[in-house]
Batch of 3 targets.
Target 1
Amino acid sequence: MNATALIKHTQAESNLLDRYQSSKDGLAGSIAVSELREAAVEQIRDRGLPHRRVEEYKYSDLRAFMKSAAPLAAAADEAVAKAILADQNSYGDLERYQVVTINGVFAPDLSDVDGLTGEGVVISDFNSALKGEAGAQLLRSPKSAANDGVIALNTAFVQGGVVISLAAGVEVSKPVELVQIATSEGAQVSRTKVTLGEGSKLRLLETFAGETGNGELNAVFDYDIADKASLATTRLIAGKVDAARLFTTIATIAGEAEFKSLGFMAGPKFARNQQFIEFTGEHSEAKIYGVTMAGGEDLADQTLIVDHAVPNCNSREFFKTVLDGRAKGVYQGRINVAQHAQKTDGEMMTQALLLSEEAEMANKPELEIFADDVICAHGATSGQIDEDLLFYLRARGIPEDEARTLLVLAFLSEAIEEYGEDDVTDGLEERVRDWLAGH
Amino acid sequence: MLEIKNLHARIAEDETEILRGVDLTVNAGEVHAIMGPNGSGKSTLSYVLAGKDDYEITEGEVLFNGENMLDMDPDERAAAGMFLAFQYPIEIPGVATMEFLKTAMNAQRKARGEDVLSIPDFMKRVKAAASHLNVSMDMLKRPLNVGFSGGEKKRAEILQMSLLEPKLCVLDETDSGLDIDALRVVSDGVNKLRSPERAMVVITHYQRLLDHIVPDVVHVLSKGKIVKTGDKDLALDLEKHGYAEYIDTAA
């Protein structure tokens, strides 16, 4: 098998291949799932980690960043998880259900299973489902990124996760916070499958807590949204961490449905939030927002492909990035409009605010349109804080630091406010302030 | 209250000299008007007083209640009681007007070692000041100056001025872009703030504002210097004869 290797493996790649050999017997799944895992490992063996010569990773060279790969995190420690859960509390007093995973594995004892069951939501263990007949279907890849390296890493090593299913018509009264907790150092690889039945409605909060040390965090979220259903997801990627943070959204949106998401990133040294969204039914809407902050030597990447595969759908993509120090921001957004996807309305905007001379933003908005009756627009800006605005605020007695903070908040709030979900985004201002004060 | 002595200033970027030896003393309780042709340095004088760093002071000094004002940052000047009503108030998307007012008032209070305002106290003050100036609550909920008409922007400036209770008010062409009715509302707002403890410098190109805000002293600024000083009749004289005489004097 090694004879097929096309590349000289880096330390991290060798570690990953060793990791697979030593952990594969403990990884769950049907025979079909094992085959998918093998194929994913084969891809890593042949192509290595995604790097700058792969177009999608041109600005975010994961291969160069990962110097080594830690083993998978050890078994869950519930007591430690409880302490972390009590301590992190990302949403304060917000009324919500919590669903918890520890080191990637579903922890029903720490989750509000009864409350959710009462509302008609079925919560189950991803690993159990992987062992079932339909297990392999849980590991689908997006059409627009069939061989993505980060998804392959996830498929190879996924330790577990949660399956959340809403039957037709179920509207969950409170947001559901999915908290992924690390209780021991090591890689954390999880997958979340959310299925929304026709006309159902869910607000999802995705948070991450605990230290993974040298281990990467790789979380895939797969949303299957049926006709007339509505999903809003708020992903909170925060904290100063040295290992890679890799997030993937796969979403398919059927007819007359709504999908809305906010990806908030501040802190990690290397973070990529990639989203692959496909309209499969007509008259649906997707609104995708990104709020990114990076300082020091951080790299923060928001990557997005929206596939208008059917006619009459609207999408809005609005991303804001604030960079300081020598940080690098990446926005790669593409709207694909298929030939028969007439009456598509797509509007994409990415804006960056550079607080330092050495920060760098790579903005790459793209439209690929094969239909002839569409409205599509894209725009990109990079700029600095406007000195006239700053002077106006200072002339009213506001000290320079606070004036700058106000202007950064004002810049980011445009995307946050358009996303809406005020009760959920209330605390973000404080997070922006913390980041500005301490990055 | 304000003593400007032999003030010289130039544009930092290209070193064009704008102010060429301004001398001006304004005492508490007085209202001074500064008039002058376009390009005479009126707006530069207001920006230099507020501390905009586009300008470089090459000579002279500015004392504010005996303190060297040129050593202070813009926010320190504001906290010390300096207020500039901008000729073109700036739109700041994403900063709600109310939030801005609260931040500014409390920042100044903190700088002076005073307690921050409670929310009810703050609201009471804003409502009172807003009603005098015909500023609606709807305006206050919008982002600062965004989508405000010319008149609304000027009223918002005077609202800030009355809430911040400065000792020295510098009004830069506050009449520009105002129709007669708006001019009256703004002037009434300014006149309400006249007091024996407060000084005002009203910069204007036209005499008509001075029918509403009657000055104690009128100065003519030309080519970066004050070339004539008189009482309010000087403004009427200027209205009749124009600035030609002073442009020649300075030249």
Note: Chain A has a mean pLDDT of 95.
Target 2
Amino acid sequence: MLLEAKNIGFKYGAGDWLFRHVDLQVEALEVVGITGPSGVGKTTFSRILADYELPNEGTVTMDGKPIMTSSYHPVQLVFQHPEKAVNPRWKLRRTLNEGWQPNDDFLDKLGIKQEWLNRWPNELSGGELQRFCVARALGPKTKFLIADEMTTMLDAVTQAQIWHAVLDIAKERNMGVLVISHDQHLINRVCTRVLEF
Amino acid sequence: MQLSNKQLLKQPLNKRQRTLLVCIGLSIVVCVVVLTGILLDENRIATNLEVRNSPPSLDHLFGTDWLGRDMFSRTLMGLSLSIGVGLTGAIGSATISVILGLVAATMGKVADSIVTWLIDLFLSVPHLVSLILIAFAFGGGFKGIVLGIALTHWPSLARVIRSEVMQVRSLDFVQVSKKMGKSRWWITKEHMLPHIIPQMLVGVLLLFPHAILHEAAVTFLGLGLSPQEPAIGIILSESMRYLSVGMWWLAFFPGICLLFIVRMFDKIGDNLRMLIDPHHAHR
């Protein structure tokens, strides 16, 4: 599996280019970091990769073919703010099972307690919610996971736990992972290579 | 600071409690009116020429008319008919606006411009005119009036729902759902519809008084319900001729009752809208 972004350029509306000529190749089992100062378009780039946004120029392909957009997308994105990424009117069991049905071992690995499943999103903390978002994005058909500041607002212990689980699962499933972060320690620790934006 | 019971009682009720009170009061009134309207003995409104033109008394609370019919019973029946028309009309109207609002916001640009054009078209013509034309085209009567109300009152609510859906559509969890391979219809049904239900309820509540008043207005003009049905509009228009001879009770009580019910619905709708709106809810 090879996720390839070629010559990507993007601008908001009729404004200036946010970035141009960005190339990136991620293979299965790779953990690639993306760093850079605020506002250079890291998040926008990751949204383009996951097909949330269309680039003004350039293409995103998987194994040389364009990605089918109507079914489950093989590139899944985990957002920085979990409270926005879950429906506040759904109990968490429903949110978790939206894409697939994870088993109990899987939930254990991410530290999701069974009793949380019957709660509403506003009854859980950000860290607890983020575990649900990660679990939801790690469906069997996910080939690449993009973690856009996934653990930035979490404490060190939770961070470590989540990353440990994610990297484990990625290795097991033969997935590629993209890490967007300002945290140099995290990047040094988990990534096999780094793209400076 | 601990408040004693007495102080608590003296405190003015907050908006939530007041709304609840009005809601309870209104549901009781509506139930009573509808039930009596259905159960009431036809004899009460039969003509009885011995008690013609009597002013309000204990026997006839709202007086009697020029044919000796009891105005209290006629008012109740008229109100229950009006509430029926208003509810069916408002619910029909809300259904149309929800469907059109969802279509406009989820089906793409062409659908959106068609719906927006339709909304502008209907908003540019006064309600009453299009209502009269539609009611007339469907042959008047109960069916014509209900259809007329349902087909003319949807645009403003449709506009609100369209903008609401557009906002929900751009939220992260809806986008995620799309990437999970969920269909447009599924997302609309599971994610968006629950989000617009509060708006819809408030919409129905605010449409209802409009619908009743318009029904009364059209009937008053003689284009709505037929004269043998004791609708409020009919009662009012018939009593016009007798007002000048001093029979004020013929128009006064039915008018006040109509106003009362309309005002209550209006109040509840307004309060609910403010309570649901997070910018106002904490006040």
Note: The first helix of chain A runs from residue 42 to 49.
Target 3
Amino acid sequence: MKRPPENLLLPRSARALPTRTRLRTRPVPVILYVVGLLLLPVLVVGAGVGAGWWATTGATAVRQADGAQPGADGGTAPAAPVDPADVKGSMTVQQVVDAFPPVTAAEVLARFGAPAGTPASTPLKTLVEAGDGTDIPAIRTWLAERTTG
Amino acid sequence: MTGSSARTAGSGAAAGVRIRVPRRPAGWGTRVRLARHGTQAVVVGLVVWQVVQHARSGAASAEAFCPFGGFETAWTWVTTGRTVAHVHTANLVLAAAVVVLALVGRGFFCGWLCPLGTLQGLVHAAGRAVGDRVAPLRRLRRRLGQGAPAARWGRVDRVLRWGRWLVLGWAVGGAALTGTMVFREVDPWVAVLSVVEFEISTAFVVLLVTLVASVVVERPFCRYACPLGAAQSLLGRLSPIAVQRDASACLGCDLCNRACPMGIPVNTRTRVTDTTCLGCLECVAACPSEKGLALTVALPFPGRRS
């Protein structure tokens, strides 16, 4: 197979002088660019996890700082909310029970019209989809009444 | 210019002699493309794994790993300490990561990591492959790609590119004002994640339009509607890293322009600092001249200019 020539011919109209910018620039090796920029988000996420800000379900880290219980998987899971308005469909029945004493799992399940044997690890949104029409805002209202009353 | 056969630029031009510039090593561009596509494949694999885990065992939704959710909830989080619905603190951490990434590496997230961009790129590559093999489509593309139709499309393209700024304002402003993710209703990424549910929603229609448009226009959502890309464009203006062109080693071959997925006329730039630059290095990989295009970092301290 014929090897391509090592040099290329510029067109006759090519500018003879190198391009100049107003900046002082240095070339960056592509490998350094790729590896460095892939590491950067990893470091930021690692810092976020280390600081306890990483939660993929439930309420916010601000609520954790307020003294609510951390999640069962070692502290990076969402804290249980102290305000019924923070209840989300991604929360499990157990998280609601933990957050709003004296509410029990049986009461929550009954509210959704779910069978009594439903696991406490079931997310609320699953109960909404399979339930009798009770939605998350209705549960928030009920929890607010239940905990204040 | 290096090597004994390369004449000095000034004397060569003056004498009317063709200037020689060194060629890139064989396979260099392919390796850069492979690195990018490999990275994109890993990200897509992680998203698919998360979607499957979510469907099978109720693990966190892949939505919880979307950095734009962090931008949408930022105002609510700062002012009330809460996140809007469907957003968690993980989204805020990822948004912070994207901010840092944009400040350093411009559009690197869009070009190397964003799975929606990868999806559009795949559809476009498939469309181009079909177009290359079907003669009438090839002729049609050639006819539309030059002369008056191309000029007309250029004008439309420039106007449409304002769309992503409007979407950014609406998505972030709407979330701040209403406390809900207004953009979620039309977000094609949400439609991708819930595609197994076969739910025909507005977001699904947007996804469908995006994928159909991807056949003829590369990355249409990124060009015209992506609010995350727009947010990164603003931050990316501060990035010191950019592709730089050396006119004395530029062949004027147009390969960089054709390779750019965002349609940036690279061979008219000195430094590619366009807000739409994805940092994908497709232009650098396509450039046959070793010194024609290079990735450079602008140094903050004074010294001899380059």
Note: The first helix of chain A runs from residue 30 to 50.
